[in-house]
Amino acid sequence: MRKLALSLSASFIFSFSFSQGLIGDIMNVETVNIELTEENEKLKAEYDEKLEKETTALDENLAKYDESYQKDVSSIIENFTKKLTEGDEKMVVNEKKRIVTRVKSLTMSLKKNKKDAVQRFLNSMQIANRNLPDFMRSDEAKSVKETAADHMKKFDEEYVANLDAVRGFEKKEHLVINNNSSASAQ
Asked: Which residue in 151, 169, 18, 24 sits closest to 103, CA to CA?
């Protein structure tokens, strides 16, 4: 009976030790909280400075693209308005087609230029992110990607709105020729 009790307790202890594995208790390591060291704070400050600089540069580039686009479209429309006063219907129809094509092209270029600017921002920040300590990288990278995604979403919405404006221009009748001789005869 004693041998039976010893063998049962030995098998219980033996099976319990295998359920945790040979290194179960060795692998049970306590979590360690670390404070930011002076070096980590310096790296974070440098990263934040780079982020601020790149964000400002991005915003300035986007504003320049918008300004250039608006200036180009305004110039095209001013020229069209001058040609409208000439009253040549065929010329107005042809010019309108050219304007629609040109403005659509400018609109696509605007979207591409803006997306390229955001990609340059992402590339620059990815390089800066590599200098951060490992435990900071993912949060900072996520923040930068969210900023870029917000810009991309705005670009897509702006692109659709600009194309809607072009379609509205295309559908509008810009030259109406009144026949004054028939109005005066009545």
From this structure: 169
Q: Which long-range contacts (CB under 8 A, 24 or more apart) does 19-28 make?
A: none
Q: What is the DSSP string of 47-93?
A: HHHHHHHHHHHHHHHHHHHHHHHHHHHHHHHHHHHHHHTT--HHHHH
Residue 54's closest CA among 124, 113, 134?
124
Whether 73 contacts 136, CB under 8 Å: no
Q: Is the pLDDT of residue 10 over 50?
A: yes
83 token code pair: 């040609």
Task: Please work out, in degrees rounded to the nearest 5, the angle formed at the alpha carbon of residue 133 by the alpha carbons of 130 and 134.
Answer: 85
Place of tokens 């129809």: 93
Lowest-pLDDT range of 2-16, 40-54, 145-159, 160-174:
2-16
Please name the amino acid found at residue 57. A
pLDDT at position 6 is 60
- Quote the CA–CA distance of 80 and 90 in Å, as a whole number: 13
* pLDDT > 90? residue 24: no
Whole-model pTM: value is 0.72
| C-alpha closest to that of 84 among 96, 74, 67 | 96
Q: Which residues contact 93 (CB under 8 A, 6 or more apart)?
A: none
Rounded to whole angstroms, the Cα distance separating 134 from 145 reads 17
